[in-house]
Every structure is written in structure tokens, then in C-alpha cells.
Design a protein that fits this description.
Blueprint: H1 4-7, E1 11-14, E2 17-20, H2 31-35, E3 39-40, E4 43-48, E5 51-55, H3 57-70, H4 79-92, E6 98-106, E7 120-127, H5 136-139, E8 141-145, H6 166-178, E9 183-187, E10 193-196, E11 200-205, E12 208-212, H7 222-233, E13 237-241, H8 247-250, E14 253-258, E15 262-269, E16 272-273, H9 281-294, E17 305-307
Parallel strand pairs: 8-9, 8-15, 12-13
Antiparallel strand pairs: 1-2, 1-7, 3-6, 4-5, 4-6, 5-17, 6-7, 9-10, 11-12, 11-14, 14-15, 15-16
Amino acid sequence: MAGKDDRSNLKVWLDGKLVNYNDAKVPILTHSLQYGSGIFEGLRAYQNHKGVAIFRLHDHVKRFFRTAKIYHMDLGYTPKELEKAIVETVRANGSKPCYIRPFAFYNTDHIGLATHGDKVTTFIAAVPMGAYFGKGKDQGIRCKTSTWRRINSEILPVEAKASGNYINSLIAHQEASTSGFDEAIMLSLDGMIAEGSTENIFLYMDDYLLTPNYSADILIGITRDSVIKIAQSSGIEVVETELHKEELYIADEVFFTGTAAEITPVVNVDGIKVGEGKPGKITKMLSQKYSDVVMGKNNKFKDWLTYV
């Protein structure tokens, strides 16, 4: 992510206007800061031979509005207006490759949970971002299965990208990090493989690409959906199913997917090597195909790109 000095030069979109990052201020007692009631999305824009393109803009904005509906938030804009605002924000920052963060929150500073009639502010930032896991993007990362279980829909709406949900992810990641691992793998309350702290997960074994299904209370990731479609178009059979923890140890390959993570190989789980302990050929192949798609080199999926 960009450093503080870089961000001081950013232009951000705040309630319909482009302003300087340092001028985008809210009260310290803002409801969503106190109670985790903000909602958000994460997108990437990539540089290719035709220009800068935002990956699956429409689908991300659609999910943003679904999250808003779940939390009874009136954003005050149409999906098309926010898509336009996202494009404008990328342009205002030089039309460069970036990570894009739309965020909506209750911009009031009273004490108490009630939100009836509270102002909802929508904010969009576009910041530089390299590989989320650094060298791990190519070399692979080490993961720990977390003792903290993934929330389910009886506790919070797992299909919503709400700020409060990610406290669950945060504590799992902290546990993994302090134990010397790069990332956590979370299990469902039923003990099935769910996802990473902020990523979906895939296993490749016995010539099948496997990924947890909805019953594991996963977030239905847009990158996850992209990888499923790319794999199927490449002749790989994809199975969405329940997966037991031990299957992480015996899989030939394991990898994460996500807007930030893209496709990141997992080469070790709980101290046990995955496959040969290095990124596998299917992971590498899908990573290259995914790169071709976001770089505008695959005409089959060209509709996933919105040029700035």
C-alpha cells in the first residue's frame, strides 16, 4: 500500500466531490468507527497495452449495494453513479495501477447503536499497491489453521463486506503472524475449511480443483468466481464442496484468491509441506491466465475490464 507521504498527494471522492486526502475528515466519534458499521469493497486497476483498466467494476459495485441493502444503508447514489465516481477517482490520481477502496459509513457522532436517519457518507480512495504478500506472490506463503472459527450467518451476515466482520479476520491473522506464519486459514463452526483471513481458498488434488462451498460461510469472492470461470475454460473440473482440515495437508496444491492477494500459492500449512513445498504447476498456470485476463490479453473475458 502507499505510504503516508504518498497518500498526502491523493485525491479522494467524498460525497460527490474530489478532495485532497488530508481534507477528508470525519468526527472522531463517528458511528462506524465506534461500532464497526461501515461497509466497503476492494477493486484493482491494472495497466495493460490499451491503458488502465478496472477489473470487474460492475460486479464489485453490485456487491457493494447488496451489502448496503443488508445493513439498511441508503447510499444516496445509483450503481452507475458510483461506477462513474470510481473511474473519476482513478483518473484524478493519474490513471495509474491501483487498489480502489469504496467505503460507506454512518457519518454521525452520537453515542448509541441507533442509526435511523443518520447521514451515510460514501468515500472512494485509489492507492498504489504491489503484491499483497510480497515475494510470497511467486514463492508461496506459510499458513496456520486458526483456533478462531469463521463467523456464520447466524451471527453476522457473512455475504456482507462490513467492517465489523473483519475483526474476526484480524484476530485470526494476528494469531498466525505472532506464531511465525504469513497468513491464517479459518475453519467454519462445523470444522470445515472456510477461507483465509481475507482470501478465498482452493485445493488441487486428484485432478480436481476444489473450493469450499456456501455452507462454509465464506464470502463469495469475485476473484474466486473469476478463477472458477478461468479454470473451467481451461478444461479443469471445479468442485465446490465441504472440505476437511486434513485435506490441506494431502492436497497437491493450495492457493488463495482475492482482489489484493490475486492468486497466491500456499506451500506450507501448520508446518506440513503442501505437495513439494513450492508453487505447483496448476497454480502457476491459473496465475498466468489470471494475469493475462487482467492485462487484457484474453478476449474471452474482455468484458471484465473497464478502461479509465
